[in-house]
Specification:
The chain has seven helices and 44 strands. The protein has about 900 residues and is mainly β.
Length: about 900
């Protein structure tokens, strides 16, 4: 069977060992003594059920292999490290050097007690104590701490079972999956990013979306296929100055490196609707099928011991269907299935090289192409209003690490890329929207986005005494962007009710004329500095700051965000740690608002909105005539002169406790304040009380982008991580949260532009209760079982009238009579979802776990077949008001085949 890894992350466990400090009286130089890890710690960090035990079965064992990987504190491989195998009494038995991937292996040693010592320039010497028994030994993960002067690190005796740590980055409410865990838990379509995203905090995510960090730099995607991913993390060191967003707003991926021997992985996934349950809203059971082929290969280039490669490929074919539930023009119910085929290909190649001075360099290229048809159809959206999308990307990644001295190390990483993402409407007809009933006609969504981008970071790590100083420059984005907006060239008619549609009386008509082409250079630049200080053996702090700047938004230069964190244990070797921190995090707009500012300047791309005031004579007809449109003023998008970059202040305090030798529990309070948040407001909207005409009749809608929003969030996280017993290994997290705000983002308009404060209410993402379990077990002989359970309360739903009573051209008016509705007053549907994975390994060479292995697995997603509605219709005039028209997929079965060598 494969090794089970703690889903909480072996990295955080081993990092603890680098920070538990215990002073000793010794004549040896303090830095000369190595960090000592023992078998109990490694048993815990790897979370294996049997592999670390000695001869429990009483059988005589033959020679065994000892293998592992040497890593730095960030999780990166250390090539060229010296690895020494010692006997239990300290006698040297063998000495080798780690390869390009940091890997090492000692072959054919009898059972007994051993020590492994890892040495590398600039890092502390580290010793692992272990017992080689009858069972196969899982690969070790040795993390060498950076050399710190005047600090003694020693973990021995009864303290070796500790997992909690006073290292600032060792927070136990983090979530991570390493390669072994990723192979054991149920992962839909091998999409690790979506699977682990359940642990993100929607209220912490910025305007530009989730921050994806790959090998230390911000990226659009992982850059490799799933089998080439080594580890995925969320909320590791939440207040680090290295990153722009807090821990639960970013997702970090570490990819594999090259190896001195050939290793590979081939994966095949298959699903067919014949084995699945039927979607509640589907018109019968549609013929759906998914085929997924993926693999990676790594090894040396020629006979070189210093140059290796990594190749990864993926081909994906998905024939799924969406369910349409709508009421059509003649008040006839529509229920049909719409095919939504998807085709995807990804290829990546990387070359790694190690220099004689322990410098490390790699360069890689990736190509991706994806096509999706009938996108957007489903629910109230008819097939005719769907789109076809395409995506094409080329990307080059470069990384170089240089060690100047044992105290100073430099890391340079950057990527350059190009992508092209067009969107095509299925037909050119005007779009017809009848609020809460159906959306038909054409999609009116034609557009094209192109980009040539550069992302990069360079930083230095300097160690002196009790200080570890990190400082550098981070460039999240410098991009030449092209944004072609051809949306609404034929226009969109919006009707408040089905009766008004049948009478041919639209509420609004929106159309765009002119040049939709815009090209601009987006620049986002940051700098950071952070000092991690071990004040005492049981007390450490980090103090840092991050500078942020982006163009187009008044080029505000005064964005300095301080960061702070601490970890303190009441006793030197105690099992309880108090941890906390605070930080300021600046937002980032992304390219779309910049495109809007350039497009809708009153000249380039003109937007016209015609409105028929309620209970008054119609201003225009359906269809609109050129004469009616001829006198309409154009709308514009402008910046509020007072606008500044929004920021979030997050703060937390918590307690972590060792539960057993192999598990921890943490309770953490997290508070946050969103200040000067983005929103939009029509500053030329018809004023109350009559809402009859715009103040400036020569101008249409004046969308002013402002930073006047506010958000307040409080949450309590309870997290269990580790191996409770042989029956369960993983992590469980419950979050009780409450989030209120008065904006939903940069494109959000308040219900009344003259009273935006009235929108203070539950956030769109306010979810009071959230429970997640992710883990695995080997309770059944020969089989591994993985499980993912999610139990969520619902997000709120905003109730609207479906009409435009205030005549501003935006259909977000809330009812005021006979019952006044505040924003987001309806409770949305919750979620109950259980996924299971059961698999078995078949060894091609008996007794050789490291040899070729075929893994056969069966996944079941939404095992309980619970109807998980997406949301409820909030349009009061709709026949579907308070009901769902779409749901997440029903129970689906998936066959997984994996061959590794």
């Amino acid at each position: 069977m494969k090794t089970h890894c703690d889903l909480g992350g072996a990295l955080a466990l081993i990092l603890m060992l680098t920070t538990q400090v215990k002073a000793h009286e010794s004549s040896a130089p303090r830095d000369a003594r190595p960090l000592v890890l023992t078998e109990a710690i490694l048993l815990e960090s790897m979370n294996d059920t049997k592999s670390w035990s000695s001869d429990e079965d009483g059988q005589k064992a033959g020679p065994r292999s000892i293998s592992g990987t040497i890593l730095d504190p960030s999780g990166g491989a250390i090539p060229g490290a010296t690895v020494i195998l010692l006997s239990g009494d300290g006698k040297e038995l063998s000495r080798i050097t780690s390869d390009k991937d940091g890997s090492f292996q000692f072959d054919k040693f009898p059972t007994g007690s051993y020590k492994i010592e890892g040495q590398a320039p600039g890092f502390r010497d580290t010793i692992v104590e272990l017992k080689l028994g009858s069972q196969l030994l899982s690969p070790l993960r040795m993390v060498l701490p950076i050399a710190v002067q005047n600090e003694t690190i020693n973990v021995a005796g009864n303290d070796v079972s500790l997992v909690v740590t006073t290292d600032v980055s060792g927070n136990q409410n983090a979530n991570s999956l390493d390669r072994s865990a990723l192979d054991r838990v149920p992962v839909f379509d091998q999409d690790y990013v979506s699977m682990l995203s359940r642990f993100l905090d929607d209220s912490a995510i910025g305007t530009n979306g989730v921050s994806l960090i790959v090998n230390g730099i911000e990226a659009n995607g992982p850059g490799v296929t799933p089998s080439a991913v080594q580890e995925v993390r969320i909320n590791q060191n939440p207040y680090s100055a290295r990153f722009a967003r807090p821990g639960r707003a970013r997702l970090e991926i570490i990819t594999k490196g090259g190896t001195p021997a050939y290793h590979g992985s081939l994966n095949f996934l298959f699903r067919d609707a014949v084995f699945d349950a039927r979607n509640t809203f589907a018109a019968g059971k549609p013929p759906e099928q998914r085929q997924f082929y993926e693999g990676s290969l790594t090894g040396p280039i020629g006979g070189s011991k210093k140059t290796s490669f990594l190749l990864s490929l993926e081909s994906d074919k998905d024939d799924s269907q969406a369910a349409v539930v709508a009421t059509g023009a003649n008040n006839v119910a529509i229920n049909e299935n719409v095919p939504q085929p998807m085709r995807h290909f990804f290829g990546s190649g990387r070359v790694f090289h190690d220099f004689n001075d322990n410098d490390h360099f790699w360069i890689g290229y990736s190509f991706e192409h994806q096509s999706n048809n009938n996108v957007g159809a489903g629910g109230n959206v008819l097939p005719e209003a769907a789109t076809n999308t395409r995506f094409l990307e080329h990307e080059v990644n470069v990384s170089y690490r240089h060690i100047f001295s044992p105290e100073l190390m430099n890391q340079l990483q950057f990527l350059v890329g190009h992508y092209d993402a067009p969107v095509f409407s299925l037909n050119e007809n005007p779009q017809i929207v009848v609020s809460g009933f159906f959306t038909g006609g054409g999609a009116q969504a034609d557009s094209r986005r192109t980009e040539y981008h550069f992302d990069g970071t360079e930083f230095l790590t300097y160690v002196n005494g009790r200080h570890q100083l990190l400082f550098g420059v981070d460039i999240p984005d410098i991009s030449r962007r092209g944004m072609d907006d051809f949306t609404n060239m034929a226009g969109t008619y919006t009707f408040a009710t089905l009766a008004e549609f049948q009478a041919g009386i639209p509420g609004t008509y929106l159309v765009q004329k002119g040049s939709g082409h815009a090209v601009f250079l987006e620049r986002v630049v940051s700098g950071f500095i952070e000092d991690t200080i071990r004040l005492k053996p049981n007390f450490s702090v980090s103090v840092g700051a991050r500078y942020y700047w982006q163009n187009y938004f008044h080029d505000d230069p005064n964005n300095v965000a301080p960061r702070f964190g601490f970890a303190w244990a009441p006793t030197k070797n105690g099992k309880t740690v108090f941890r906390g921190g605070a930080g300021e995090f600046y937002d980032r707009t992304g390219p779309r608002p910049i495109g809007d500012l350039l497009h809708f300047n009153g000249v380039n791309l003109q937007r016209f909105i015609l409105s028929n005031p309620p209970n008054q004579a119609s201003v225009f007809s359906y269809p609109v005539t050129p004469a009616q449109l001829g006198g309409a003023p154009t709308g514009v998008v402008v910046l509020d002169p007072r606008l500044r970059i929004p920021y979030t202040i997050q703060y937390s305090v918590g307690i972590e406790r060792q539960v057993t030798a192999k598990s921890t529990f943490s309770a953490t309070y997290i508070g946050s304040l969103g200040i000067d948040l983005f929103r939009s407001r029509d500053t030329n909207a018809p004023p109350p009380p009559n809402f009859t005409a715009r103040p400036d009749r020569s101008l249409g809608q004046e969308r002013q982008i402002e930073s006047e929003g506010y958000q307040k969030s409080n949450s309590l996280e309870l997290t269990f991580r580790g191996k409770l017993s042989r029956l369960f290994s993983g992590q469980v997290q419950y979050t009780l949260a409450k989030t209120y705000n008065n904006t939903s983002g940069i494109a959000y308009f308040p219900g009344n532009s003259y009273s935006p404060s009235a929108d203070w209410a539950r956030s769109d993402n306010d979810r009071r209760h959230k429970f997640d379990l992710l883990g695995s077990t080997e309770v059944v002989k020969y089989f591994s079982i993985g499980a993912a359970l999610s139990l969520y309360s619902g997000k709120p739903v905003n109730v609207t009238t479906g009409a435009d009573a205030n005549n501003d051209g935006i259909y977000n008016d809330r009812p005021v009579s006979p019952v006044a509705y505040a924003r987001n007053t309806m409770h949305g549907p919750g979620l109950i979802n259980l996924d299971l994975n059961i698999e078995r390994d078949f060894l091609f060479v008996k007794g050789k776990k490291e040899g070729p292995t075929l893994t056969v697995g069966l996944n079941s997603f939404n095992v309980l077949n619970h109807q998980n509605d997406v949301t409820y219709v909030g349009v009061l005039s709709s026949v579907y008001f308070g009901k769902a028209v779409s749901a997440l997929p029903p129970r689906r079965m998936q066959l997984n085949l994996q061959f590794k060598f």
